[in-house]
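Handout, page 2. Input:
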Amino acid sequence: MVAMPMATVENSVIAAASKAAKFWLARGGFKTTIINTEKIGHTHFILAVNPQKLEHFFTTQLKSTLFKQTEEITANMRNRGGGIIDIELINKTFDMAHYYQIKATFQTVDSMGANFINSCMERIGETLKYEIEMCKYFTIEETQSLQIIMNILSNNLPNCLARAEVSCPIEELNDDSSMSNVEFVKKFKQAVDIAGFDVGLATTNNKDIMKGVDCVAIATGNDFRAIEAGAHSYAAKTGKYSSLTYCSFDNEKFRFWIDLPISVGVVGGLTNIHPLVKFSLALLGRPSSKELMGIMAVSGLAQNFAALHSLVTTGIQKGHKKMHLSNILKQ
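Output:
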């Protein structure tokens, strides 16, 4: 069992997460799986050259040079088990004339890795420029067409995913006397399914999820804005914006889960400086970055379960009005 630090001005978030935690504690609790931890960065550039010609240059000469020229930057990260996993040339000329990307894939172990990735991408951009200018393989016109637009990490994290889930027999699920367990499960799944195709509900659903995630991100000194951006990008991965949570059930068992793209760090940044961040990480038992990914996914799932539970039973305003009255009395 984990005591979860949450930093927010909205006390209803704490109440919802706590209610869901209490509910699932008696039903086996939350389970987490880290699906992958890959992060990416890009060098965006323009080069008026035949794509096959550039691909040949990349595979026969440039790729190995890029690895070599970044070895100084990646040395410490490689010693910790991370570093650059792969470097690819991406042809984007179908989107913009003469536009290409150098895409690098990273493992950053227990750091969020933004500064590390950006430093690597800047070195890759510098090396790309030098190698093309010095290479006799290209014509003068082709060389002069080169423009390095930018070198930057991406907050789109399709391969840096944490899964959190809950499950239990249907007969143990509903604690609301206004409807049967089967009625509750059907209505709950319908709500999740609607959020899977209706952009309006999906947006609200994901907002509730990120309320829970952001609280833990802020408390542990992580960049909640980057996490938000990555989550919403992942929600639109099919070309249409959708919910981040999913639900299934059969005759006996109910299952509710989330796949959350998330990049977090437990070293670097504020983790060793800010006293409340240090306290929060100590409260969590000094987790690894993978463990913190799972904890944040649990926070988002708990928040969403509590919100959907209220919406399909008593309605959201009953609890909100109760808390609002408490706030008024305190004032």
